[in-house]
């Protein structure tokens, strides 16, 4: 999962559990998502990269384009 790109489908930010869609096994699946940087907000629709994966369905992400 680390290094995979996905799209935010539920806003990520302080006090929020966001959601991202990632490609898995030929399809797309939703994962719970948190920002890697504390306090960072990532808007819905933003392209992100997975930095850390915690099974079964939690990822820590950062914006793909700064």
In short:
By secondary structure, the chain is mainly β. The chain has strands at about 5-10, 20-25, 25-35, 45-55, 60-65. A hairpin with a 3-residue loop joins strand 4 and strand 5 (about 60-65).
What does this protein look like?
The chain has a 5-stranded mixed barrel. With 66 residues, it is mainly beta. A hairpin with a 7-residue loop joins β1 and β2. The protein contains no helices and 5 strands. It is 0% helix and 55% strand. The chain starts with a strand and ends with a strand. The model has no long low-confidence stretch (mean pLDDT 96).
* Overall pLDDT level: 96
Number of strands: 5
Oligomer: single chain
In this structure, how is the largest beta sheet organized? 5 strands, mixed, barrel
Structural class: mainly beta
Search tags:
five-stranded mixed β-barrel, 66 residues, mainly beta, globular
What is the fold's blueprint, element by element?
Layout: E1 5-10, E2 18-24, E3 27-35, E4 47-54, E5 58-63
